[in-house]
Amino acid sequence: MEIFFTILIMTLVVSLSGVFTRVLPFQLPLPLMQIAIGALLAWPTFGLHVEFDPELFLVLFIPPLLFADGWKTPTREFLEHGREIFGLALALVLVTVVGIGFLIYWLVPGIPLIPAFALAAVLSPTDAVALSGIVGEGRIPKKIMGILQGEAGRNDAAGRESLIFAV
């Protein structure tokens, strides 16, 4: 019964976050509002805690999201800008994992190098939903937005593979 109430509360909060975003006197992207409300709900005094197996999360959620992102990618734009998309996705994830991994290793002396790379692999991919939510529609030229969204979808896979390689 507890899982039912947790799902009910989370569904209600996600639904109300859209209303809160529209009612605010200033403009705030919906993903940021949802992150803020989720952080409030996860505060230790509220006691809303959801446990899940990370392996189950990787199997249940990541592949369908990557598939949906690939399905929504326009084929013509992807073929036209494929080199830029894959160049950004692979090179930036690799550079970020190595750079941030060494930075974490240098800043936190207790962390060995391999776990530092694993943490960097988790942090390196950008999020296409956050990109479009924060930037908004029409602020960036369509060509650049298409390349960035294509790159954001492909670097999730590159980040996942970097994490698996580091672990």
Automatic annotation (TrEMBL):
It holds the Pfam family Na_H_Exchanger. It comes from the Bacteria. Keywords: Antiport, Cell inner membrane, Cell membrane, Ion transport, Membrane, Sodium, Sodium transport, Transmembrane, Transmembrane helix, Transport. This is Na+/H+ antiporter. It comes from Salmonella infantis. Residues 14-159 form the Cation/H+ exchanger transmembrane domain. It is a multi-pass membrane protein. InterPro entries: Cation/H_exchanger_CPA1 (IPR018422), Cation/H_exchanger_TM (IPR006153). One of its GO terms (molecular function) is potassium:proton antiporter activity. It is found in: Cell membrane. GO terms for cellular component: plasma membrane.
